[in-house]
Amino acid sequence: MDKPFAGSWSLILGASSGMGRATALALAAAGSNIIGVHLDRAQRQPEVDELARKIEEYGVAGHLLNENAASDPGRARLLATVRELAGGTGIRVLLHSLAFGALAPFLPPVRGGGGEPPAVATRAQLEMTLSVMAHSLVYWVQDLVREELLPPGAKVFAMTSATTRRVSPTYGLVLAAKRALESHIRQLAVDLAPRGVSVNAIRAGVTLTDSFLRIPESDDLQQRALARHPHGRLTTPEDVAEAILLLAQARSSWLTGNIIGVDGGEDFTM
């Protein structure tokens, strides 16, 4: 089997499930060593161990680190490990797939009668959601550049969402974070162009990941997407991983600063 990423290192932020897990496996199958960051409780450790086993079955190194990739101390600890493991070659592929954010309405619904109004988004929730799902990408790129760990030809990807063009009752905080992330992608593309590093956002279609299923309106969203989908099915994490693998193989940095739809035509069907 062809191993286009043989000897390289990939860094997956959010590696234990969904898009991050699928991409880690796809890159490992293509020969890349994997540094995967996750933040899971002890009860999910068997799933993490199983992922590590599958990565190593491809004959590559797999290091899965349980750490908060969005915190400054966590990032500093992780960066030391990245430097130790990949200092000789740098990171070939960086995937930002951190999906920890608050789901809450901005305002309570207008309704008659008494009763306790539902909780609305707080300043802390808004700032946390933007920090984790958007701003942390900038901090990671800053640190990797400072440590000379993003060589020419490296590819940076971040996960945005099909729902950035729509509004749903509890998704406002995440929507703001995804829009900020897309803006960061464009700015980073310009800033990294002289270094020969490309930066793109992947806009997946509706995908039944753990984070998507936590959205209170997820059942309605998936039914509407499925009803109009030209392929007759929803996007899978493996669809996204396949696209990232294809895009990451190009050495050129000319494809950069884009929001790339990976949805099988879902976004433009009525």
Question: How would you sum up this structure, described in words?
Answer:
The structure is a single chain. This protein is of the alpha/beta class and 270 residues long. The protein has helices spanning 18-29, 45-56, 72-86, 123-146, 172-192, 210-213, 218-228, 237-248; strands at residues 9-13, 33-38, 62-66, 93-96, 155-161, 198-204, 259-262. It has one domain: 3-Layer(aba) Sandwich (Rossmann fold), CATH 3.40.50.720. Helices cover 41% and strands 14% of the residues. A 7-stranded parallel beta sheet has the order 3-2-1-4-5-6-7, with helices on both faces. The radius of gyration is 19 Å and the shape is globular.
Pattern of helices and strands: EHEHEHEHEHEHHHE
Give the termini separation: 40 Å
Read across the widest sheet, the strand sequence of neighbours is 3-2-1-4-5-6-7
CATH-scheme architecture: 3-Layer(aba) Sandwich
Mean pLDDT across all residues, rounded?
92
Helix share of residues?
A: 40-55%
Largest sheet: 7 strands, parallel
CA radius of gyration: 19 Å
Keywords:
single chain; 270 residues; alpha/beta; Rossmann fold; seven-stranded parallel beta sheet; 8 helices; 14% strand
